[in-house]
Amino acid sequence: KIIQYLLQEKMKSQTVNEEVLQKTIQRCREQNIIIPTFEQMNNPDKIPAKIKEELKKLPIWDVNPLNLFRISWKNERVEKPKEQGGAYGDVNYIELPSELTGTKAKIYVLVGKYFPTGAHKVGATFGALVPKLITGNLDPTTQKVIWPSTGNYCRGGAFDSRLMGCDSIAILPEEMSQERFEWLKFLGAEIFATPGCESNVKEIYDKAKELIAERGDKVLNLNQFEDFGNPMWHYTCTGNAMQQVYEKNKTDKSNLFGLFLTQGSAGTLAAADYLKKYYPLTKLGVGEALQCPTLSCNGYGGHRIEGIGDKHVPWVHNLRSTDAVVALDDVPNMNIMRLFNCEEGHKYLKAKGIKEELIKELHHFGISGIANIMGCIKMAKYFELTENDVMLTVATDSMEMYQSRVKEMDEKHGPFTAIDAAVVFQADLMGLSTEYVLETTYADKKRMHNLKYFTWVEQQGKTVEELNAQWYDTGYWDERMGTAEFWDEKIKEFNEKVGILKKYEQISNLNKQFSCQ
483: buried, middle or exposed (CB in 10 Å: 19+, 13-18, 0-12)? Predict the structure, then answer.
């Protein structure tokens, strides 16, 4: 409570541009925009009843400001989110049995498919965008928001921007899946495809710099790799969701051993900082592609695990919290993708005793989600976890984003056969080993942290003083992660000035009165 008080006192010094803020309020009033609080994302019971009633009829992917209230791990699982609305429930997750993982540990995977756009990145972009919008540090009438990304972040950013009355610029590598580009075109974003694949992040930064130089204050760059709104949302919402899943399933003997997440922009890694406050012995395993082992051995290279970045260490990655690093081979990753999504793969899994109900759920795991599962398995084997140990992870998106990749694999390697299924299951899934697992020492963590210097100080204008503060200042990370309560108060003040929320609250209160009578 003392830390929270000090944080709120410090946050009061946030600069507010009143002139721009008034224009933003008017824009939101004209477009019927209400901004949800972080508390409402964690607990949809706090959302006015009238809004929840309208959401039942509103398709989850619709470009409608009310779908900002869909930025939650608790959306109802509907069969066709592009066509259907729905209510709320518990956190969406899938438990993986030992028959599928080859380990005794319990592995729970949070499911990102039921967010708008089919990925949880709408949360990270919300965390980056809203603080700028409600303080007048972004002018939606004159500025475009730049979303540098390897895919889902710019998709989420373009979606959130449209819902909050802003225009967008999406920057992503040209080799990302076609589904990503199609969605960005649908949203009307200005698109720049940079050279290379998933790991070509520097090229994205360079394009953003070029646009800033060309357009000046007509653009605002919200870089997920450096903007603390990204990890702040995951600390507040993903960490909370993981805690709920664990508490729901734990027994007297349960031990929350750890969570495994690929590095990417390092946003989801902040969930570990949240969980470690409640379960101090919890370990965080961080994944990267074996073909691009930056954390493991200062390496570089291209790879096919879409959504996990690489070739640098994000500014927002708290290396002190990283307890293990796992390098994941993209070849087994892509093979398992085929196993989980082809008819012959499903037949083989059924023959191996995997329940049909689970087989029907495997489409919830996109390419990076499969990588996260692989990392959980490798950690479980390395640390010799038992049936009492629990591992947590996320599936950022689903296979809805990668049907073109399945088609490409079929064209390149031929149809996925029963023999392929047997080989992939035994060699790539059951055969996952403890190879390329690094249990980090103090020196390992410091080496990885020091890699930030070359990207962020030499190239992106950060200071050595702040780099050192990230490592030595014990309050640095708390000051940036624990700000949700402060922003919730600011969101409420903003909504009150806009005036749209009052109408919904009045209707909800009237309905309560009538129901009581």
Answer: buried
How many residues are given for the chain? Answer: 517
Residues of the chain with pLDDT > 90, as a percent, come to 84
The radius of gyration of the chain's CA atoms, rounded to the nearest angstrom, is 22
Helix, coil or strand: residue 438: strand
The predicted-structure confidence for 383-435, as pLDDT tens digits, reads as follows 999 999 999 999 999 998 888 889 999 999 999 999 999 999 999 999 999 99
Would you state the structure tokens that stand for residue 105, as one six-digit string? Answer: 């540990």
Number of neighbours of residue 138 by Cβ within 10 angstroms: 24
Diameter of the chain by CA atoms? 69
Residue 141's contacts (CB-CB under 8 Å, 6 or more residues apart) are 23, 27
Residues 267 and 115 sit within 8 Å (Cβ to Cβ): no
Residue by residue, what is the 3-state secondary structure of 301-340? CCCCCCCCCCCCCCCCCCHHHCCEEEEECHHHHHHHHHHH
Identify whether the C-beta of residue 231 lies closer than 8 Å to the C-beta of residue 481. yes
Check residue 286 and report its DSSP letter: E
Sign of the dihedral through C-alpha 473, 477, 478, 479: positive
Distance separating alpha carbons of residues 500 and 496, to the nearest angstrom: 8
**Cβ–Cβ < 8 Å for 163, 122:** no
Q: Which residues lie closer than 8 Å to 507 by C-beta, 6 or more apart?
A: 48, 50
pTM confidence score: 0.94
For the record, the structure tokens of 343 come out as: 């008819």
Q: In the structure, what pLDDT confidence band is assigned to residue 177 with cuts at 50, 70 and 90?
A: confident
Q: Where are the beta strands (DSSP E) in 50-202?
A: 93-96, 106-111, 144-148, 167-173, 190-194
Residue type, 122: V
Q: Is the pLDDT of residue 514 over 50?
A: no
